[in-house]
Amino acid sequence: DGGITQSPKYLFRKEGQNVTLSCEQNLNHDAMYWYRQDPGQGLRLIYYSQIVNDFQKGDIAEGYSVSREKKESFPLTVTSAQKNPTAFYLCASSIGGAIWGYTFGSGTRLTVV
Amino acid sequence: DQQVKQNSPSLSVQEGRISILNCDYTNSMFDYFLWYKKYPAEGPTFLISISSIKDKNEDGRFTVFLNKSAKHLSLHIVPSQPGDSAVYFCAASNTGNQFYFGTGTSLTVIP
């Protein structure tokens, strides 16, 4: 079955540590996205990538980094520079831009302890 | 600043009746709108879309209405079913790449 896999589902990190969230899709989608969800707020775009080896910052990219070395994979690194990393992170993909609708993964809940 | 707003955090409706979920936006340049449905512990799933050249789009029990002058869209579900109980997000874009999401409305359909 085609879909997007995010791992792990729950992640705990100590303050000051970098952590990488995995996102893999087998839908052959060109575009991939990372969103963050906080209580009482809508999903906010962190980074997106329309093609391999290219990515663009979203509204809240500070403290995050991404790579897109393969079409199937779009990992997100939450660095120690991110002031409030505790959140629910959603990865999505789209066949050719989000206008066609996203397919979302099931999310990773990151907690800084 | 929240560009897309869903002012009702929750809504309860009897099974078989109509559910109306509302969404307001502030950016008049938005020209494409999506609705997503989310169950607990799952990612959102795409439900229905509408572009600014239309004022209505229908897909089975789901209809989205767009009022550009009021910067308002709504999702109608009729008849509502218990399986429709979920959180519904609206999203808007003017580039087709970056979508701005509302905070969601939790719909409960009472059997």
What does this structure look like?
With 113 residues, chain A is an all-beta fold. Chain A contains no helices and eleven strands. In chain A, a hairpin with an 8-residue loop joins strand 9 and strand 10. With 111 residues, chain B is an all-beta fold. In chain B, the strands form two sheets. In chain B, strands 2, 4, 5, 9, 10 and 11 form a six-stranded mixed β-sheet that branches. Chain B is globular and about 40 Å long. The N and C termini of chain B lie far apart (38 Å). The mean pLDDT of chain B is 93. The chains are: A mainly beta (113), B mainly beta (111). Chains A and B meet through strand 5 and strand 10 of A and strand 4, strand 5, strand 9 and strand 10 of B.
Largest interface: A-B, 27 and 24 residues
Mean pLDDT of chain B: 93
Low-pLDDT ranges of chain B: none
What is the number of beta strands of chain B?
Answer: 11
- Tally of contiguous helical segments of chain B: 0
Give the helix/strand class of chain A: mainly beta
Element-level helix/strand string of chain B: EEEEEEEEEEE
Helix content estimate of chain B = under 10%
The radius of gyration computed from the alpha-carbon positions of chain A, rounded to a whole number of angstroms, is: 13 Å
The tally of beta strands of chain A, per DSSP, is 11
Shape of chain B: globular
Strand percentage of chain B: over 45%
| Strand composition percent of chain A | over 45%
N-to-C CA distance of chain B: 38 Å
| Distance, first to last CA of chain A | 36 Å
Provide the structure class of chain B: mainly beta
Q: List the secondary-structure elements of chain A in sequence, H or E.
A: EEEEEEEEEEE
Tell me about the largest β-sheet of chain A: 7 strands, mixed
Shape of chain A: globular
